UniProtKB/TrEMBL annotation:
Domain of life of the source: Bacteria
EC numbers for this chain: 2.3.1.128
Protein species of origin: Bacillus amyloliquefaciens (strain ATCC 23350 / DSM 7 / BCRC 11601 / CCUG 28519 / NBRC 15535 / NRRL B-14393 / F)
Enzyme class: transferase
Name used for this protein in its record: Ribosomal-protein-alanine acetyltransferase
Family annotation (InterPro entries): Acyl_CoA_acyltransferase (IPR016181)
Recorded GO MF terms: acyltransferase activity
Keyword vocabulary terms for this entry: Acyltransferase, Transferase
Length: 46
């Protein structure tokens, strides 16, 4: 989730890169929530 800065930092340290925000992607406790989309590319595929 975009507000979970600690989780995003862990993923970035592992080599993931931010790609964008998926708006109202997941329904949690009856409320639609945004999610941060991150991805990692295998070094041989660069």
């Amino acid at each position: 989730m975009p507000h979970n800065k600690a989780s995003i930092r862990v993923l970035e340290k592992a080599g993931f890169h931010k790609e964008g925000i998926a708006r109202k992607n997941v329904k949690i406790k009856g409320k639609w929530e945004d999610h941060q989309v991150l991805a990692i590319i295998h070094p041989e595929d660069k």
